[in-house]
Amino acid sequence: MKCHWCGSDHAQEARRTGYWELPDGSRAVEIKEIPSVSCRDCGIEYQEDTMIEKIEDQLMLIDTKKLSSPVTYDDLMAVPRLLKKNYFKL
Question: Which domain of life is it from (predicted)?
Fold first, then answer.
């Protein structure tokens, strides 16, 4: 796997914790075990753009008032959606 930051071929898949502000701005949630990238050469850990989109779409489409924190990525993605897709995305 290639690191998008330093270009190293020593990046690898990892599961990391991240923090997201809810779409309504009421609070932030801790999300554990997010599929991420970890580079042993430059030390950066990040989520790819597609993963960020998945998380943000899910947070837009669920009832976040019932969401506990912390929550695992898999549990977050398993929360039933109120809408089928994010109609607010351009």
Answer: Bacteria
